Amino acid sequence: MKTGVFYLQPKYNRILLKLSGESLAGSATHGIDFDTVLKICEPIKKCADMGIQVGIVVGGGNFWRGRSSGKMDRTRADHMGMLATTINALGVADALEQLGVQVRVQTAIAMQQIAEPYIRNRAVRHLEKGRVVVFGCGTGNPFFSTDTAAALRAAEIDADIILKATMVDGVYDSDPKKNPDAVKFDTLSFMDVLNRNLQVMDSTAASLCKDNKIPILVFSIDEPDNIIKAVCGESIGTLVKED
Ligand SMILES: Nc1ncnc2c1ncn2[C@@H]1O[C@H](COP(=O)(O)OP(=O)(O)OP(=O)(O)O)[C@@H](O)[C@H]1O
Ligand SMILES: O=c1ccn([C@@H]2O[C@H](COP(=O)(O)O)[C@@H](O)[C@H]2O)c(=O)[nH]1
């Protein structure tokens, strides 16, 4: 009988989970719905209980996206976006702590009264001790995205895979929110993502993953237990990897 988490067999030792900022808003369009955050964090706790080392990068789309800021100076707008990702990182950390998970937040831009500064070796040490590490502020640089931050941190901590938990259930041949006839892929190469300009992740993130041979599984966070299915290697979403 395979009902409890302890019967599940994880496929990965160390993962980088990219959580969509938008997903933290629940049924609202903006902000944080903390009950939703708790629901999303339950399977993350199960991962930690299974002994999987978990790093998390959170997006900021529930608050602010620099690229959608209209007339604002882009660099300043991106600074605001990075702060938004940090609000989310703190929300996720709080939910994990309430569930009894040991967690540390590290930010790419120093704000030491609130979180640890990002120090790669320290992050790895936390992971080895079984602590979940939530990375805030993206890469710390404007003109990037949290997908790129996820690729960068995954490369730095030597993660086995990036799990992109997002608002769609995989990668389609065009944006499924705009084209109801869009067709979903089960697997794709990074070259396909780049050549077809598939917008589910930006090209910087796709290139970084390609160069560093880090696969990405894109799946829906609507059903938070998909995180467990993903770490156990069930075929959900779309797997993007080298040919
Ligand atoms: N080819 C495609 N396949 C799947 N989704 C696509 C595609 N092209 C565009 N999208 C859009 O990409 C979105 C997911 O990526 P997006 O960068 O917007 O969010 P995110 O990275 O999950 O995080 P955040 O909400 O924090 O910005 C989907 O909601 C979908 O509408
Ligand atoms: O490295 C980074 C990461 C993010 N930003 C800014 O934050 C927002 C929110 O991130 P999403 O990936 O869009 O969820 C992003 O739009 C940028 O404005 C950044 O500047 N640098």
From TrEMBL:
InterPro entries, alphabetized: AceGlu_kinase-like_sf, Asp/Glu/Uridylate_kinase, Uridylate_kinase, Uridylate_kinase_bac
CDD domains tied to this protein: AAK_UMPK-PyrH-Ec
Positions of the Aspartate/glutamate/uridylate kinase domain: 13-220
Catalysed reactions, semicolon-separated: UMP + ATP = UDP + ADP
UniProt: ATP binding residues: K18, L19, S20, G21, G61, R65, T166, Y172, D175
Binding-site residues, UMP: G60, D78, T139, G140, N141, P142, F143, F144, S145, T146
Subcellular location: Cytoplasm
Keyword Transmembrane: no
Pathway as given in its UniProt record: Pyrimidine metabolism; CTP biosynthesis via de novo pathway; UDP from UMP (UMPK route): step 1/1
EC number: 2.7.4.22
Segments crossing the lipid bilayer: none
Pfam family, one: AA_kinase
Mechanisms controlling activity: Inhibited by UTP.
MF (Gene Ontology): UMP kinase activity
Similarity comment text for this entry: Belongs to the UMP kinase family.
Subunit structure: Homohexamer.
Protein name according to UniProt: Uridylate kinase
Species assigned in the record: Caproiciproducens faecalis
Upper classification of the organism: Bacteria, Bacillati, Bacillota, Clostridia, Eubacteriales
Protein's gene: pyrH
